[in-house]
Amino acid sequence: MQADPNCIFCKIAAGQIPAKKVYEDDQIIAFHDIHPWAPVHILVIPKQHIVSMVDVTEADASLLGRMMAVTPRLMRELGVTDGYRHVVNTGRDGMQEVMHLHVHAMGGPRPWLKG
Prior knowledge:
A hairpin with a 7-residue loop joins strand 2 (28-32) and strand 3 (40-46). The chain has 2 helices and 5 strands. The protein has 115 residues and is an alpha+beta fold. It has a 5-stranded antiparallel sheet, with helices on one face.
């Protein structure tokens, strides 16, 4: 599996940096955001290093589908019962801070107040 030795999310996926994990399988990992914008704010990342949506190809369709499909169950398990948002920031102009593809899933009362 492709990894970037300087990427914080690759290090989390490899177990080199601790994270408050809520899910992990052979392709993806989900963990709580350390700077949450909502009462429940998790990140879902591929274990494979993909910089951003700009680098996604049709070959990644099942991986992206998996990332999106696992979040309903995770949000339910985390107590989110009245909706949530998926957000994918892409590139610097798209406000992506960590250059490793990730999906924010944010739920709870008014998670959009910060932006």
